[in-house]
Amino acid sequence: MATCTVSPLLAENVGTGCGENAYKCYQCKRCTSGCPVALYADMHPAMIMRAVQLGQLDMVFDDRFIWLCTGCETCTTRCPQGIDIAAIIDELKIIARRDGRIPAGTPSAAMLKLNYDSFVRWGRMWEVELIARDVLRRPKSVTSWLSLGPKMMLKGKINPTIQRGDTLAMKRMVQTAESITSAKLRRQADAGGEA
Ligand code: SF4
Ligand code: SF4
Predict the structure, then answer these.
(1) pLDDT digits (tens, 9 = 90+) for 4-38
(2) In sequence order, what are the beta bridge partners of 6?
(3) H/E run at residue 29
(4) Which of 81, 85, 92 has the most ligand 1 atoms within 8 A of CB, as the residue to mutate?
(5) Among the atoms of ligand 1, which is closest to the Cα of residue 30?
(6) Which CATH number among 1.10.10.10, 3.90.170.10, 1.10.1060.10, 3.30.110.70 corresponds to the domain 10-102?
(7) Mean pLDDT, residues 62-72
(8) Which residues sit opposite 56 in a β-bridge?
């Protein structure tokens, strides 16, 4: 039987984290009609907004939609209520990581973490390391990388040599981002604990 965990604090916590008011959504679905990944999950942006309003944790966090979101912001630019939906989805990802609610079958969630680690380590993303770590974590991905990798290399999308970026600047950015995230989580905890 499907579960249905409800938290009246979800919309408040999202608002505390990113400053957006999910209750302003009136379900016109303009966000969904422009979303390039809405077809690939059971949820879509308007459904996510409704689920946040209702505090439906399982609908938001058990589906892979938020992890497919590319952050293109089409939804945000289309919303007649001026809601930054992309920011809400980013906030939901932060809450999902905090609460250990990343569903199985979402390699994109792990890939985002690998991206982040690569940026921190090299000051920029090093694609070869990213692919190697992805293959270590998901051996089956080797097939798609063997097919995709050479094409990406020919197009200059993968550089086999390490190109260091400004690692010091990156460390400062990471420290700033982590302190902002910690402050958000503290505010959410002060406002009533977990989502
Ligand atoms: S476009 Fe804005 S108001 Fe319309 S459904 Fe999406 S979030 Fe809600
Ligand atoms: S930001 Fe995410 S939810 Fe919004 S339109 Fe782009 S992919 Fe869809």
Answers:
(1) 788 889 999 999 889 999 999 999 999 999 999 99
(2) 56
(3) none
(4) 81
(5) 1
(6) 1.10.1060.10
(7) 95
(8) 6
